[in-house]
Amino acid sequence: MKKIQIFTVIILLFTLSSCKKYLEETVYSSAQSTNFYVNEQQGISALNGVYAGLRDTYFNYPNNDYTLFKMLEAPTGTVNTTPGFMTMNYGLQDLTDIEKAWKRMWVCINRASMLIKLLKVENINPNSAKRILAEAKFARALCYFNLVRMWGQVPLNYGVESLSDAYPKKVHENVVYNQIIEDLKVASTDLPTWNVYATYGSATSGNPLTDYQGYQPGRATKGAAQALLAKVYLTIASSIASNANLYENTFDKTEMYTKARDLCDSVYSGSQGYGLTTNYFDVFKAESENGKEDIFSIQYIEASDIKLGNGLAALTGLKGTGILSTEIGAVRSLPAFLGEFSDADTRKSATFFLQYINKTNATITYPTGIKFLTFKKYWSDYQISANNIPMQPTTYVYHTSSADKVRFGDNIPVLRYSDVLLMYAETLYALGDLTNASERVADVRERAGLGRTIPTGNLMDLIIAERRRELCFEMQLWFDYQRLNIRQKYRLDLIDNKYKYFPIPDNDLTMNAGMQPQNPGW
To answer: What does pTM read for this prediction?
Structure first.
C-alpha cells in the first residue's frame, strides 16, 4: 500500500480491513484535512456527505442495491424475495451484499465522526455550528442503532486519526447504546423543532450559507432526535423485559420505559406540529413527504441525471400490469400476511396492490386478474383514480422512464408519527397505564377505519399486531421480533440463537483481530 503521511492514511477512513476502503471519497493530505472543516460552507458540505452516506445505506442507486431492505424484511414472514434472505441461509452473493450494507453504515459513521471531531466551530455562526454537529450526531446514532441491533457488538469510531484507529475492537452492546444515547441527547437539545424549522421557509438561492438558514426537507429535527431516542430507550427496556438482552445489567428497565414514555409524550404533545394524516393512503403520496406524519425519512429524488433515486417502486411493481414505468417484480408480499387485515381496515387497500383499472376502464383484481400479491407503499409515479385505485395511464405522463430502473423518488420512512403513537402505547402499557395506552392504540386504529373501540384480549398483543399492519414493509418488524423475543411467533424456522444477529463479514474478521469472534452460529 502506498506510503503517505499518517494523517492521510487515517483519512483512508474507517477501514477494518487495510485493503477495504470504507469511504470511497477524496483522500485529503494532512494539510488539507486540517483545513477542510474550517468554515460553515465546508461544514455543510461535509454534513451533506453524511446524509449521502445515510441514503446509500438504505438504497444504493448506482447498484440498484436494496440489501438493507432484504435483510430486515425478508425474515419477517411478510415478504417474498431472494430465498437466501428469507431463510437466512445466505449464499456467497448474499454475503457479499451484506458486507456492502455493513460497509455503507461505517461510511456514514466515519463521515459524521470526522465532521464532529474536526469542525472549527469558532469560525462558524454558533447556531449553525450547533445544528451541523447535532445533525451529524443524529445520523451517527441512527447508523449505530442499526448496527448494534443487527450485529450486536461492534466497534466505536470517533474519527480515524491514526493507524491504530483503523482497527478498533468491538465493544459490548451497552457501550454502543450509551454512545447512541449521548449523541441523541445532544441532537434533541440542539436541533430546531419541525414546525419552527418549517417556518424559516424554503431557501432556494443555491448558496449553502443562505440555504442552511432556511428549511430543507429531510434534515433531522428535534422531534426526529426525540423519537429515535425514545425508540432506543424502548428497545433497551423491552429487550430486558423479554429477556432478549440484559446488556450486562447496565440499564434499569423501568427507567428506560419511563424515559421512552416521556420522549414519546414530547413528540405527541402537539407543540411540534406532528399528527396523523386523515387517510392512511395519503401518508405515501409524494405530496405528503416531509409532512406532519413524516418525522424522519431518507430522501430520494426522481431524476436520471443525478444519482439520487430509489428503485423500491420498480422492485415491487408487478411485471406486465402497466401501472409503473418500470416493473421488475423482485419483491412481493406473502399472501398469508394479507389475512391479518380485515376488509374494514383501510390500510389493506392502501398497502397492497389488490386492484387496478385498465385502459378499457375494466377493474382487474387480486387474485383472479392480478396473479401475485405485492405492496405499493413506495409507489407514487402512477395514475390514480378518484378513489385511489391504480390505473394504467391514459392521461398521466410518467416522471420516470424504463430506461433508468431506479429513477423513482419515493422517500424511505424511518420514523413516522403513528410509530411514535404505538411506541407511546407500549411504554404506557409497560408502566401500568392501560387506559392511556388504549387511547394511543385507538388513535392509530381510528385512522385505519376501525373505530376507537379496543378489542378484548391482551393489549400488548394488539399493539404488536397494529405495528405489523401499520408499519409493514418499513424495515421495523424484524427489530420488533428481536427486542420482544417473538421470532418464534412468526418464524419457527428462525428461533435458533444464530438468527439473533447477522454474520460479520469475513474480510473484517480476517484483517482485524478486534472484530473476532464471529457472531454465534455463523
So the answer is: 0.92
